[in-house]
Amino acid sequence: MYVVLVYDIMIEEKSGQKALRNTFKTCKKYLHHIQNSVFEGEITKAQLVKLKSEIYKHIRKDKDSVIIFKSREERWLEKEFWGITDDKTSNFI
After folding, report:
1. CATH of the domain at 48
2. What is the pLDDT of residue 93?
């Protein structure tokens, strides 16, 4: 499946900085970093379960949020860029 993952981590205190750093590192293991707190890419159901369990260890459920948009395939997802068009997931060299 193809997913787009977006997170919002409150960094007002030291625990927030740690949550942000660890969430970023975890997402980077499974998906492509697109922009600030946005990741996307192909992932299996098993990998998505692992990603979710790893992220849950780092986020604070009362302050942070993670949203995952799922699609069967990337081709069913239309991408439109406004401003700088730097498609980091492009397979063309």
Report:
1. 3.30.70.240
2. 41
Give domain status of residue 56, yes or no. Answer: yes
Segments of the chain scoring below 50 in pLDDT: 91-93
Taking the C-alpha atoms of residue 73 and residue 44, their distance in angstroms, rounded to an integer, is 11
Report if residue 91 sits inside a domain: no
pLDDT of residue 86: 62
- Determine the structural domain holding residue 51 and report its residue range: 2-74
Neighbours of 56 (CB within 10 A): 11
Look at residue 82 and tell me if it is in a domain: no
For the chain, the maximum distance between any two Cα atoms, rounded to a whole number of angstroms, is 43
CA pair distance 79, 27, nearest whole angstrom: 20
The total number of structural domains in the chain stands at: 1
Residue 92's pLDDT is 41
Q: What pLDDT does 87 receive?
A: 60
